[in-house]
Fold LacI family transcriptional regulator.
Amino acid sequence: MKKISAVLGALAAAAVMFTGCQKQDLIVGFVQAGHESAWRIANTESFEQAFGKDSGYILDMHDCNGSRDLQIEVIRKLLDDGVDYLVIAPVVEDGWEEVLHEAKEADVPVILCDRQISADSNLYECWVGSYFVGEGRNAVNWLENYLKEIEWKKERTFIVHLQGTKGSSAQKGRTQGLEEGLRNHPEWKLLGFDNGNFSESGGYIAMKKIIASIGIDMIDVVYAENDDMAIGAVEAIRETGKEPGKDIIIISFDAGRRALELVKQGVINCDVECNPMHGPLVKNIIDQKEKGIEPEKIMNVKESLYDITNVDEVLETRTY
Ligand code: AHR
């Protein structure tokens, strides 16, 4: 009997030693901007999948509901809790210096995804996301070609601009693209603009306000800085009896499934892709860092542009 309990004791001790040597899952604090759009939901899901069960990581995800101040508060709490990595999807570009200094002092590596920030780049490891100015330029380029293709005869082209969250790099980049287009085309006129905060209800309300103040008849083009706002604007336009896509050219960004269905139906004329699949890229960066390999400072995701000529190519496989 004595012999048996001695053997069991040795086995238990070995098990404790073995567990003690096992690598603990690293904790990745993900400070998500919010849940304002279909794009954002797809972005969150891509992180949940990449850092899911058996990934070797525990994802501590926080939805900050579109508030930069809440993001900062959450980061401080995560630093207090002793996270191993911080992944931040910043709501806006400004206001990050102080809290990133705190992360640096705590020796917690910071990876930025989606939007950029205006702080010193030594305060973070790297950034993964879209080239928003390029997206805006692609949209403008598409409009130039489209107007030629349909032999647009009007002397002036009146554009309505629905902006995303003010001060975010997605808004700033796409707005810059349009502003460049307006400068290069004196015959293009900005008829009205409002902020729809990247949400469907925001786009609907902004479009309703613009229609109430300038009417619908003069509007030739709506440049909506994401799909959700474009879908909201489509509804507001339909309520006037006009046909979006036919009476008014609709340009959108993101190329999520719901909007691509509208491209297929000829309701949205052009959708510039914004790729939300950052999760696997960020996981790869952390995997590499764990092996001592430093990431590239800037990593742009692959993106395309869809209109009626190529939308079928993507619709079959688009999951979000
Ligand atoms: O920052 C990316 C943008 O934010 C996407 O275009 C938009 O849909 C999201 O809310």
Q: What stands out?
A: The pocket of alpha-L-arabinofuranose is lined by residues 36-37, 39-40, 114-115, 170, 198, 226, 253-254, 274 (CB under 6 Å).
